[in-house]
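RECORD TYPE: protein structure
NAME: Gem-associated protein 7
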Amino acid sequence: MASLTESNAASQKVVNSDDERVKARAFLRERFLRSTSGLVGSQCKITTKEKSVITAHYHGMDMHGQDIFVKNLTTPMGQLRYALVRTIDVVNMNLINANVCQK
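PREDICTED:
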């Protein structure tokens, strides 16, 4: 049977591992949010599951990644000043004039 000291050491490793995992996830989430916020205003071309191509200006995404907020959406049926595009309907999205800085 493991001693109390060994048990405490093992549980401390799990806590440290969980703590490191939480910190890593927070770091990656912050990088993702910074990168997507840097794309705001970029022209994008979106291909949908219905095989239609729409164009718009990317202006953000909801916190769960389910909806894309766009402005000046142009579809085969017409134009919308503002719109939410569901990500489940998107096959791909190309950012045409992305304002990405490389170090």
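COMMENT: The radius of gyration is 21 Å.
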